[in-house]
Amino acid sequence: MVHIFYRKIIPIYYKLNCVDICRIRTRNSLIVPYTSNDNDIEYNTMKEGLKIFFEGELKPYPKLGFLFTGQGPNLLHRKFRSNFEQLYSNSESYRRIFTMAKKVLNSDFAELILNQDKKLLDPEYAQPALVLISIANLTEYFSKNPELMKHPPALLTGHSLGELTALIVAGVVSFEDGLRIAQIRGEIMKTGSGRMMAVPNLSEDILREVQELFKLDLAVINGPDQVVLSGRGPDIEAAIKFLFKKGIIPTILPITIAAHSKIMEEPQKKFAQALESFKFNDPKIPIVSVFEPQLRNNGKEIKNVFIQQLTHLLNFPEMIARAKIEGVDHFIEFGAASILSKLVENLDQSLNIISIHNASAMERRFEDFYKDSSSSISI
Question: Domain 6-191+263-369 - what CATH class?
Fold first, then answer.
């Protein structure tokens, strides 16, 4: 039913030929658990907090990409708490990630999650927590599938906040800096205002009408059947009543800011200034950005598009299309819930994706998922 901007997105799957990812001459940028005693850990660099670089030439899985979830999951949902408790209780490497984070940010995020602390409604706490969960899930899955430590994915992507997790894994920013950036981003974003709502099955005509009547910004395109609108709280509430009358039922997101809209212009300036004190390296694994999606290999450019996210439209289908153009058709989502995998499945059924977010998913063997007859990599 819905074709919002989709006609402009999907044709690039077919107009451009997919290309193979070339061999990457690099150190391995994938995270593996640090094995020393926690008391011996130094936190000056990422190497000392998380051991991520292997020397030598590594050949990537040419058809594999990693996806990292943004600030969509409800961390206070009891099902999420149950999933987290099971992983946290049974995995030393999982617990170690949160131990290191406590030393970096002086907050016990595991305790906040297990106690269902209302602080997790605050972006200052929610954003570092979500980054930590993605990284902890990744390290635990790596421990069960060690072949992933030998061969990096061809590219990394993340939706909104999830792009920061991708930057940590790619070595653009250190683990320590990445957590601090997540906290700063949350602190600054909460100085903004407004609300966000996800709207299903919205025609282009009604979208245009809603934006004009209630001065809302199109913040996110998640697929042909869902967009996200941002705006002032009263305007969002009025728009909901308007849409209800048309038989359209929006969902208010658990976020108290109008992310990816003009309302965030002042917070964006503060964020850009705050990031001046952080070093952004060139990625060891290419990044596909969600703002103006394209393959990016320059740290300065990656920093700029990450800043621009706050006030601009994020186009998830175009990001996935860009990854497909680069030859990727297998994705692993790391996050607090199975969110992006559902979007990908709705977007393109030719793509293969699994979501690693609970103990059951951890048992999914990589060699059973990744099938690539064109690759010389033996798995």
Answer: alpha beta
